[in-house]
Amino acid sequence: MEGLQSALADHGMLILFLLALIEGPLVVLAATALAQMGAADIRIVWAVAVLADLAGDMLLYAFGRCAPGLLPPRLRPQLVRQKAVALFRQRGSQLLLAAKLTHFAGLPTLISAGFGRMSLLPFLVWTLIGTVLKVSIIILIGWHFWRAIGAGDMTEAVTVLIVLCVCCALVFAVMQVRRWI
Asked: Could you read off the pLDDT of 103-124 as tens digits, one per residue?
């Protein structure tokens, strides 16, 4: 935590952007803790986290879009691409929201969106919606968790973690019922 605080003091929000680009949720939680202690402005942390997340999404989308062109024609997976194109035309918004809200599915889904030639504007709109939701939830949970830790209220801290687990389970259940995953 002190390392991030020192880096923010030395390099400003650029370091937060770069770190959030590499590993968003953990860095955002740490930056939220610093904001809770008064070492950063939570609104700026939120904005930088959203921008970094979108930049990362765009890089993965661009990779998925361009990478197959780098392969020799005989190695290009045409059948897989046709399936990906059809899938993202039918359920691109659902797939992107599910991927954004379930951190582990983000990388392959974002690359697949580019590979499947999802149109850029819908990709940006749905990833922006998912990013705003994800970053807001992480900051909200982190803010309350670190406030409870700072106040020495372990009951509230544990309650925040339990509420987080219940919310994750509910989101997962809804996604399964709606066949988003």
From this structure: 777 888 888 888 888 899 999 9
Count of CB atoms within 10 A of residue 16's CB?
Answer: 25
Q: How many angstroms separate the first and last alpha carbons of the chain?
A: 35
Where is pLDDT greater, at 12 or 29? Answer: 29
Name, in order, each residue with C-beta under 8 angstroms of 9's C-beta and a sequence gap of 6 or more.
Answer: none
Single-letter amino acid code for the residue at 151:
A
pLDDT of 50 reads 96
Closest C-alpha among 52, 68, 70 to residue 13: 52
Report pLDDT for 74.
Answer: 62
In contact, 17 and 8? CB cutoff 8 Å: no
Helices (H), the chain: 2-11, 13-22, 24-36, 42-70, 78-101, 106-115, 120-150, 154-177
